[in-house]
Amino acid sequence: MSLRICIAALGVLMLSAPSFADPGHSSEKRAYGEPGDPRKPARVVQVTMRETDGKMLFLPDLVQVRKGEQIKFVLRNNGEIDHELVIGTLEENLKHGEQMRRNPDMEHEDPNAKRLAPKKTGEVLWSFSEAGEFDFSCLIPGHREAGMTGKIIVK
């Protein structure tokens, strides 16, 4: 078998094998909930992203939610560089952050994540079906480490 055929076969296998998919990149239910339903009511939580005094921040960095509540995160990047918000468990976000360091141009088109250019706005609609403490972070390399992280407490 030629090298070209082997490479093509490997590519097809990787694209078609669901076991290779990152669980944070699907629309299935996860430990912290599932994508929201735009036909149902949602509480709006405004989150601002910005840089200040050498730090990168989310304002607010703590969101409290009732189990079963749907939240529409209305995001605004008031910063001078791109930022993103990724909702997940702390473990998932730390793991995904490592993947981002290896592939810094990775962008998200996932229901639990939104990347924004400076001065842009966006939304994430999420239904929190499980109680617990969850994370939201900017996983662009260096941003989480500069303070761009927050906590979601679901009671």
UniProtKB/TrEMBL annotation:
Keyword set, alphabetical order: Copper, Metal-binding, Signal
Bias (Basic and acidic residues): 25-40
Domain Blue (type 1) copper as annotated: residue spans: 46-155
Keyword Protein transport included in the entry's annotation: no
Segments of this protein annotated with the region Disordered: 21-41
InterPro entries: BlueCu_1 (IPR000923), Cu-binding_ET (IPR050845), Cupredoxin (IPR008972)
Domain of life the protein comes from: Bacteria
Signal sequence extent: 1-21
Pfam families, alphabetized: Copper-bind (PF00127)
Protein name: Cupredoxin-like copper-binding protein
